[in-house]
Inverse folding.
């Protein structure tokens, strides 16, 4: 298990490869079985209520469409600040996630709410742009007030074995972020194997990412439970090795309360309770929030109010 | 945040327990002639579940006679396709009543509901479906153009997988045209008695399946009865030896599935997280009450220091408690006697200087409980490396080279199971070829399937159950 060895100072592609290929492999069948086993946990009553509120506070409420307009972004921000107009006890969401050109609009709309703006950057979702463009993209989003940047890794470089390029880009984007937190999107649906997911996770953490994130939401499969499990194992191991806690953000495909709670169980039993905070676990989603709100109401009143009682933004 | 899982108990209401259960002979429930009953307990809280009849010699006579009559007049003459229909019907009823069977099994045995619900009962149904499919294809099974049933089978099963072991015994016997007299274990008779009701519901001809409850004496009377053609036993090696002696010199055929001391070999290039899972499943599944449990971890010395803390961290996360709670990973020990045996053997480890570790936690006050335990610093000479503990106790040994791993794994009187963990295919095959064990799992453990034969080398018994091979034990 050479991954516990201290990383060499001078980073070369050779050294990175040696490090990443020294990580223990992932047995695909076993990883799936473990995720499946944990997904059968039965979370009821008080545990469910606590989990729902925690999940709401972890939602990165997202709109990433070509058709996004200032109006759409403002209405999403209003939703983030007041998820359920009928119930003011609902916690606020983790952040609002938008494209860079919408950051200023979102920051303005969220002023005074304490909710941060996350922006995808670095030529999201493909990431196929020169580095200086990616850095300019990042700097502009930060300058407009984004407190979190969700970058994409260069999957082409990763799959061609150029780990140094992936590493250097993350380092450069991290620098461009300044005080903003950096989430590194691995786009696991394109990395394809669980071994690659583990390697990319460790590469992103080593390069300084504050979070590792599964997907852009534009590629299927997105955030599957086994992928999130492997990333949680990676942050657990990175913490054991370095003492630094890196966050995890599954994004894409988490649409209902049951899926969200399954993710929280994975966190609880893999990385551990220390990760059960919006500082270290986020869920990238758009439609999930209303299901969480509906389940929350059902738990406290015993009835489903129906989807028309929740705002569609 | 501490994420406490609220209690999530499966409802007991689906089970309608009777106060007393009688013997199932010739299609009917009848009292034992001796009039004696024993109590079946819930091992999780020592609650009395039901009174169960104790069969004596006269009852064995009646049951064997009924089985003989049914075999000669109905079941043995029936076409395979017709027998298959009955077995398919039984399989479907098991599926329909799966929740009831799972809850009852958990109550009577103490194992977690997630195992009875997700493993035991689905496998029971799968066994009946699988052998139902063979019933009309026996001429193509590779045992000649016209294989014949043996006649009447005496079957004695253990308490660790009560209904699953019943399925392993009854499904192939019936598919091949034999009739059976089966004795479930004295501490776990209840699901077998519900199975008897299922046979009635399926309108199985009377006498094809007979269930005799009772303890060791009943089992002895059954296996020694001269009127049977076949004895099938799953249980301890000690009792297996007695049975082999009593059957020796008779015309009866015999299959034995006995104890084990399975080795789980973890090489330094293994997929570590999955290997940790596999080691945990290997020994803590069903509280370690598994004859093929991976009770010896053989870990390559070069990674032992890193592997063991990961293993312990994982064991510390196991949830022990109410077996009916859907989030329970480890349930109760099946009986006071078994708990005593586990304690006694584990105590020898303390005396022999082995290091013992369990996660800090309180055990429930009533019922029979034993914390998951990891013993490190174990060597081949220690009793806990040689004797079957049949409980949630893992003995950890180390090895330096593949040769040493194989030598240590095979250095046991048993030979039922082994697991090998490596990402290198050639090493996997090299190791598997050299292990003397009936079942070898590659990067997994404790996986069962009706299509796969199961059985042991050496003192783990002889004969195979499951798959096409499992038919052979019931065909002449």
């Amino acid at each position: 298990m050479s991954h516990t060895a201290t990383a060499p100072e001078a980073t070369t592609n050779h050294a990175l490869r040696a490090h990443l290929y020294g990580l223990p492999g992932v047995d695909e069948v076993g990883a799936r079985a473990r995720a499946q086993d944990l997904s059968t946990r039965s979370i009821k009553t008080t545990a469910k209520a606590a989990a729902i509120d925690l999940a709401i506070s972890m939602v990165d409420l997202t709109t990433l469409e070509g058709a996004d307009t200032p109006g759409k972004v403002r209405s999403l921000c209003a939703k983030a600040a007041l998820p359920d107009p009928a119930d003011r006890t609902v916690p606020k969401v983790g952040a609002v996630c938008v494209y860079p050109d919408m950051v200023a609009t979102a920051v303005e709309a969220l002023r005074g709410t304490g909710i941060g703006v996350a922006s995808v950057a670095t030529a999201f979702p493909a990431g196929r742009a020169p580095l200086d463009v990616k850095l300019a993209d990042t700097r502009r989003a930060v300058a407009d007030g984004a407190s979190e940047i969700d970058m994409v890794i260069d999957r082409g470089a990763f799959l061609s074995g150029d780990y140094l390029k992936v590493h250097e880009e993350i380092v450069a984007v991290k620098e461009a972020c300044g005080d903003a937190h950096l989430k590194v999107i691995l786009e696991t649906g394109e990395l394809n194997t669980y071994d690659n997911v583990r390697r990319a996770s460790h590469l992103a953490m080593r390069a300084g990412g504050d979070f590792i994130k599964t997907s852009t939401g534009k590629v299927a499969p997105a955030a599957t439970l086994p992928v999130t499990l492997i990333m949680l194992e990676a942050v657990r191991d990175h913490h054991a090795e370095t003492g630094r806690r890196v966050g995890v953000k599954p994004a894409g495909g988490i649409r209902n309360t049951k899926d969200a709670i399954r993710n929280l169980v994975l966190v609880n039993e893999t990385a551990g309770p220390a990760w059960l905070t919006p500082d270290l676990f986020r869920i990238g989603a758009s439609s999930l929030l209303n299901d969480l709100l509906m389940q929350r109401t059902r738990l406290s009143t015993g009835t489903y109010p129906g989807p028309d009682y929740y705002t569609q933004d | 945040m501490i994420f406490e899982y609220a209690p999530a108990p499966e409802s007991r209401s689906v089970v309608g327990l009777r106060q007393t259960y009688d013997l199932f002979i010739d299609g009917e429930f009848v009292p034992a002639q001796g009039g004696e009953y024993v109590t079946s307990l819930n091992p999780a809280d020592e609650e009395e579940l039901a009174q169960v009849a104790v069969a004596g010699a006269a009852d064995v006579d009646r049951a064997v006679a009924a089985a003989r009559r049914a075999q000669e007049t109905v079941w043995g003459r029936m076409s395979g396709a017709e027998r298959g229909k009955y077995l398919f019907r039984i399989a479907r009823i098991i599926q329909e009543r799966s929740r009831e069977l799972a809850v009852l099994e958990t109550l009577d045995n103490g194992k977690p509901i997630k195992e009875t619900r997700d493993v035991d009962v689905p496998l029971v149904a799968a066994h009946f479906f699988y052998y139902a499919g063979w019933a009309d294809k026996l001429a193509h099974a590779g045992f000649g153009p016209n294989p014949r049933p043996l006649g009447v089978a005496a079957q004695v099963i253990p308490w660790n997988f009560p209904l699953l072991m019943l399925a392993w015994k009854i499904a192939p016997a019936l598919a091949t045209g034999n009739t059976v007299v089966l004795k479930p274990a004295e501490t776990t008779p209840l699901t077998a008695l519900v199975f008897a009701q299922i046979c009635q519901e399926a309108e199985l001809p009377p006498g094809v399946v007979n269930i005799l409850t009772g303890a060791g004496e009943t089992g002895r009377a059954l296996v020694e009865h001269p009127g049977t053609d076949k004895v099938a036993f799953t249980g301890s090696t000690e009792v297996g030896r007695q049975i082999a002696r009593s059957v020796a010199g008779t015309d009866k055929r015999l299959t034995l599935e006995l104890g084990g001391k399975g080795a789980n070999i973890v090489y330094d290039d293994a997929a570590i997280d999955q290997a940790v899972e596999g080691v945990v499943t290997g020994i803590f599944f069903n509280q370690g009450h598994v004859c093929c449990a991976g009770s010896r971890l053989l870990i390559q010395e070069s990674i032992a220091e890193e592997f063991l803390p990961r293993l312990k961290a994982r064991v510390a996360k196991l949830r022990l408690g109410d077996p009916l709670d859907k989030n329970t990973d480890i349930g109760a020990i099946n009986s006071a006697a078994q708990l005593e045996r586990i304690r006694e053997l584990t105590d020898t480890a303390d005396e022999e200087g082995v290091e013992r570790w369990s996660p800090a936690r309180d055990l429930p006050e009533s019922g029979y409980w034993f914390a998951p335990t990891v013993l490190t610093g174990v060597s081949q000479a220690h009793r806990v490396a040689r004797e079957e503990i049949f409980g949630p106790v893992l003995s950890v040994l180390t090895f330096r080279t593949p040769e040493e791993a194989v030598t240590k794994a095979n250095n046991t009187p048993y030979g039922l199971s082994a697991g090998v963990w490596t990402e290198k295919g050639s090493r996997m095959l090299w190791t598997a070829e050299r292990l003397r064990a009936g079942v070898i799992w590659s990067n997994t453990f404790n996986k069962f399937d009706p299509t796969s034969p199961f059985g042991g080398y050496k003192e783990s018994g002889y004969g195979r159950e499951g798959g096409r091979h499992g038919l052979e034990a019931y065909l002449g």
Notes: Residues 174 and 237 of chain B are 26 Å apart (CA to CA). The radius of gyration of chain B is 22 Å.
